[in-house]
Amino acid sequence: MDAKWTVYGKRADFKAIGEQFGIDQVIARVIRNRDVTGDDNINMYLNGTLDMTHDPRLMADMEKGCNIMSQKISDGRHIRIISDYDVDGVMSNYILLDGLTNLGAEVTYEIPDRVLDGYGINERMIEDAHEDGVDTIITCDNGIAAFTAISLAKQYGMTVIVTDHHDIPYELDTENNRQYKLVDADAVIDIKRADCAYPYKGLCGAGVAYKFIRCLYDTMGIRWEEPEKYIEMLAIATQCDVMELTDENRIYVKEGLKLLQRTKNVGLQCLLEQNGLVGKPVYSYHLGFVIGPCINAAGRLESAKEGLKLLLCDDKKEAEAIAAELLELNLKRKGMTNDGVRDALALVESELKNDTVLVVYLPKLHESLAGIVAGRIRERYYKPVIVMTDSENGMLKGSGRSIDGYHMFDALNEIKDILEKFGGHELAAGLSIKADKLEEMRRLLNAKQSLTDEQLTPVVRIDVPMPVSYISIPLVEQLRLLEPYGKGNEKPIFAQAGLGIKSAKVFGSDGRYIRICFQDEDGYTIEAVDFDGIKFQECIKMWFSDEECDKMLSGLPNHIKLDVAYYPDINEYGGRKTVQIKPTMYRKSES
């Protein structure tokens, strides 16, 4: 897919920043590109610690909610936690459950079934809680839109505390202004409230739950014996819920990664063992693509309670068995996802390619995988995507993934009259609809969208146009100060135009990889490894010729010139360190 290459143009006194914080000017430029400005913020970015995070009491209703909960614990009331079924929900549930238990609460928990219940707290759970004699319900990672369920709980005389991080529901008045609506709970703790003074709005559900437990300890006058407890859970939730790694989120993930490598949680220990991560560095990638998906797989294909059960397990053998089961479920989920992506691509190519908003109906797809498949299709076509699948009673359920410039929640809000249920935010949403409304939904979404060609073209943002000759081992080591990477703190991209190729060699058992020796105009060379060597060769043949590709592979002089976007790295072999680059994108050079 063609992409537009742009260079960040943000200005600052990079030399002064570099001298003040002892970093290369290149590092200072990347930090500025992430909109981190001011000495305090730069210091927090580079050297942030847990004691720099914000006071929970700044959240609206936080003290109110903690006062209520403190009294309920003192009175021995039955408290029930109700969470979501994804990683953030499971981690939120664990933090509240463990924290309340340690404070002496009589507490139980519930997690909705993704297929039978759908997202969040519902009337069935309220009925069950009433039958079980529950006095107080506390939600986590859900509840902000559960008007009917919470109303029923209040009718039964229950106390309800909502902890959530999702957008506040709203309706448009006659002048198209948003009128926000809060559920009728005894305390509504959500950082997205307009009257919430908490300075950072990027916390996940587990982040709000963690703040609640911290504040509750203080409210009850109990010393927080383990200030780092729950940080590894919060790190996993933050990364898996694709929250921005800025401000205190960055601190939580950074510290959580350190703690995870020496975790005391038996379940996490076993999950690390199952994935071959014991004794190895753990990066943000592992949270989002290795550990998190194993926990998520339970909620997708069976019950999210299995993921929570793993975290609560103190018996090593039992934990090993659960971890092995979760790993197997995740492998099964991967296979089902790949099948769904294949079917979705075929449908788009045959019927939907001209649509701007892709509404893809896959009746056989497991509904829990709709969001993953939507994300893959979005990556392929760079368009908003909604994947729908069969549910019960003539209903379809689906998930959407969007692109910058298309607010998916707002788009669905415009057609809410034909939807049964929907929720989400700018870049992702979930919905249900009657089957006979599918084509109308597709038509309306495409008719109402106003995306331009520019918005539909992915952008490669170059942090620094940096000659490969500038790369050094100290610079690469300094780049590690920028980790962990993720949304809002993306891995930096550097680029150099007009690089030639001195030689290239295919390797690997199936010839998939290629080692390239790039050369600049002054004769400086640097090695790179591309893990999709087949695609690279196809591009060379398309942009130049088969003959030029053959010359390249034979190490002969050629006329290939490429603009290369890359990330610098260190290659260690035989005790010797050398710099290399990891290419992320190429284009034919115009120079």
Q: SSE layout and pairings?
A:
Blueprint: E1 4-7, H1 14-21, H2 25-33, H3 39-47, H4 62-74, E2 78-83, H5 87-102, E3 106-110, H6 123-131, E4 136-140, H7 147-155, E5 159-164, E6 170-172, E7 178-180, E8 187-190, H8 205-219, H9 231-240, H10 247-260, H11 266-274, H12 284-301, H13 305-312, H14 316-352, E9 358-361, H15 370-381, E10 385-390, E11 395-401, H16 408-414, E12 421-424, E13 428-434, H17 438-448, E14 459-462, E15 464-465, H18 473-479, E16 494-507, E17 513-519, E18 525-530, H19 533-543, H20 546-554, E19 561-573, E20 576-588
Parallel strand pairs: 1-14, 2-3, 2-4, 4-5, 5-8, 9-10, 15-16, 18-20
Antiparallel strand pairs: 6-7, 10-11, 11-13, 12-13, 16-17, 16-19, 17-18, 19-20
Give a written overview of the molecule.
This protein has helices at residues 14-21, 25-33, 39-47, 62-74, 87-102, 123-131, 147-155, 205-219, 231-240, 247-260, 266-274, 284-301, 305-312, 316-352, 370-381, 408-414, 438-448, 473-479, 533-543, 546-554; strands spanning 4-7, 78-83, 106-110, 136-140, 159-164, 170-172, 178-180, 187-190, 358-361, 385-390, 395-401, 421-424, 428-434, 459-462, 464-465, 494-507, 513-519, 525-530, 561-573, 576-588. With 591 residues, it is α/β, with parallel strands linked by helices. Among the domains are: 56-231, inorganic pyrophosphatase (n-terminal core), CATH 3.90.1640; 354-448, Diaminopimelate Epimerase, Chain A, domain 1, CATH 3.10.310.30; 460-588, OB fold (Dihydrolipoamide Acetyltransferase, E2P), CATH 2.40.50. The strands form five sheets. A five-stranded parallel sheet has the order 3-2-4-5-8, with helices on both faces. β19 and β20 form a beta hairpin. The two termini are 22 Å apart.
